[in-house]
Amino acid sequence: MGPFSIVSRLFLDFGILCWDILLTLSNLVRRKRRIGHVTPEGHPGYGKHWPEYSPPKETDSRCSCPALNAMANHGIIPRSGRNISFVEVGDHIRTTYNFSPTFCSFVPRFAARMLKKNYSADLFDLEELDLHNGIEHDGSLLRLDSALEQTQSTKHVPFIEELLAAATGKDKKDNTVITTKDLSRILGKRRAVARAVNKEFSQLFP
Ligand code: HEM
Ligand SMILES: *[C@@H]1O[C@H](CO)[C@@H](O)[C@H](O)[C@H]1NC(C)=O
Ligand SMILES: *[C@@H]1O[C@H](CO)[C@@H](O)[C@H](O)[C@H]1NC(C)=O
Predict the structure, then answer these.
(1) Which residue from 23, 35, 154, 44 is spatially nearest to 88, judged by alpha carbons?
(2) Is the pTM of this model over 0.85?
(3) In terms of domains, do 124 and 55 share one?
(4) Which Gene3D superfamilies does the annotation name (predicted)?
(5) Is the model's pLDDT at 206 over the cut of 70?
(6) Is residue 8 in contact with ligand 3, taking CB distance under 6 Å?
(7) What is the domain range of residue 72?
(8) d(CA 152, CA 136)
(9) What distance in angstroms lies between residue 150's CA and the mean position of ligand 1's atoms?
(10) Is 120 in the same domain as 183?
């Protein structure tokens, strides 16, 4: 990577960080969207009308990210999980999950950089995101480590059941909900177990 692209990258990351700080501050005074009125008009999910779920076909591409797989399973991004635009996936994450425009710009840019692709021009298949220690890492909540499993796009049902069973929170309607403490506890356990059972275990970030 040349010095110019390092400098332009720093400016880009710094710009997104500033934008994010401004959004965080403005959220202190802006009114929250009402429950049931979060999805913008004209987008999948508006009025609680989500495009139909259908499970992936053998030839479809899926990845280790449950959020992106769900969008493909509902046809919000191509059901094939292939030839996806970095720019468009960001837009769809924003309208589908009500994520900040900063996340929706930064993460696809990060993914493009990780795959050595052009954010504005290139396309990707979901499975490409499984590049080990790019974003995908050992000790995940819902998946076996890549050294222990053929493909990261397969969910590990016992992990999912354990996570759901570990939920200790209650919402206003007395539904059981997963709290951040629950997530943290289970993730701690996942990492400790992965470290013990996977000879190739690595953890880039603390
Ligand atoms: C373009 C944007 C995104 C990219 C490139 C991306 C990529 C990834 C990747 C590679 C993983 C696997 C990490 C691991 O090894 O655990 C992952 C996990 C995850 N992602 Fe995403 N993701 C994106 C957006 C989102 C969004 C919008 C959400 C939430 C609505 C989300 C929720 C999750 C969760 C909960 C996991 C953890 C799954 C687990 O530990 O098994 N992601 N993502
Ligand atoms: C994706 O793009 C490649 C190259 O342009 C093409 O060969 C392939 O048929 C496309 N796949 C899908 C599912 O659109
Ligand atoms: C990425 O693609 C855009 C649009 O085609 C082009 O203008 C830009 O120069 C490309 N960037 C790089 C680094 O190749």
Answers:
(1) 44
(2) yes
(3) yes
(4) Chloroperoxidase-like
(5) no
(6) no
(7) 33-131
(8) 9
(9) 19
(10) no
